[in-house]
Design a protein that fits this description.
The chain is α+β, with helices and mostly antiparallel strands and 289 residues long. The chain has a domain of 158 residues: Photosynthetic Reaction Center, subunit H, domain 2 (Photosynthetic Reaction Center, Chain H, domain 2, Alpha-Beta Complex), CATH 3.90.50.10. The protein is 14% helix and 12% strand. Strands 1, 2, 3, 4, 5, 6 and 7 form a 7-stranded mixed β-sheet that branches. It starts with a helix and ends in a 70-residue tail after the last helix.
Length: 289
């Protein structure tokens, strides 16, 4: 069985189930009033530790820096909500509800308290280590955590005042992927027009009279014969050539824009009111806060 000193070392530390799932944080330790042995521990669960569940620790173990209990996470979180009495004791009625939830025989638990040498549970009431040191007596009840705090609230265990608490909403942001942008290059064709000069040759007949200057050339050869003379004509034709040249560089960048968005959430707050006799005077301090 885990000792009180071992439990103290893991208060405010995580509590895991047998499969290693984190259940919550150990908050208060409950000791048996008669034997002074640890019997229950309260575990803060839910968002920001808004819920508190009770779990028996007779079969719990200390693993590294956390407490491991042999009950599934869902079983602990579904444990019945119990009221702790003003003296920070767990009443026998509430304790019976917890026994039934965890499948522990209530009658067997009473019998174990009377078995010699068993080191079992005595149901004369449980109290915290602070309450045991002060000699506080338990009457069919169990005390709250060894920290001496009112369960779920700051303050001392002997303070007659009632603490009113409320939740404060804290809004943060987390980054999520909203979409993707990519660059894609593809080829398109377009027509372009340019005007260029082209040249071509045409045949033209030139006639010249016989003169003294060309007479010798004209009389060369046979006087009357058939002859043929060919002239090659030329022309320019447009030819298109293309070449790839870089024209610009394109890249994707991101820029942040900040917008204001209103977030709505629900928070809980405690209200305190007093039930006074009808003939008692009513003052501003008696009104609900």
């Amino acid at each position: 069985m885990i000792t009180e000193q071992q439990i103290r070392s893991v208060l405010d530390h995580p509590v895991h189930d047998a499969e290693g799932n984190r259940i919550g944080k150990a908050d208060h330790l409950f000791l048996d009033d008669t034997t002074g042995k640890p019997e229950w521990v309260s575990v803060k669960t839910g968002w920001f530790g808004s819920s508190e569940s009770f779990v028996p620790i007779r079969d719990a173990t200390i693993v590294d820096d956390h407490l491991e209990v042999p009950y599934p996470k869902a079983t602990v979180k579904d444990a019945p909500n119990v009221d702790v009495e003003g003296g920070h004791h767990l009443s026998a009625k509430e304790e019976q509800r917890l026994y039934e939830h965890y499948g522990i025989a209530w009658d067997g638990a009473w019998e174990r308290a009377n078995q010699p040498g068993d080191g079992g549970w005595a149901h004369s009431g449980n109290q915290t280590a602070a309450g045991a040191a002060a000699g506080a007596a338990g009457t069919e009840a169990r005390t709250s955590a060894a920290t001496g705090r009112e369960p779920g609230h700051p303050g001392t265990a002997h303070d007659d005042a009632m603490t009113r608490s409320e939740e404060r909403m804290t809004v943060g942001t987390e980054r999520h992927e909203s979409g993707r942008a990519r660059l894609r290059k593809y080829v398109v064709e377009e027509e372009q027009q340019q005007t260029v000069p082209v040249r071509h040759e045409e045949a033209r007949i030139e006639r010249e009279p016989i003169t003294d200057a060309n007479r010798d050339s004209a009389l060369a050869g046979r006087p009357v014969t058939e002859a043929e003379h060919e002239v090659v004509l030329h022309e320019d034709r447009p030819v298109v050539h293309t070449e790839a040249v870089p024209v610009e560089r394109v890249r994707l960048t991101t820029e942040e824009h900040v917008e204001q968005e209103t977030v709505t959430g629900k928070v809980r707050k405690e209200q305190i009111e007093a039930d006074l006799p009808e003939d008692a005077p009513r003052t501003g301090k008696d009104r609900r806060r």
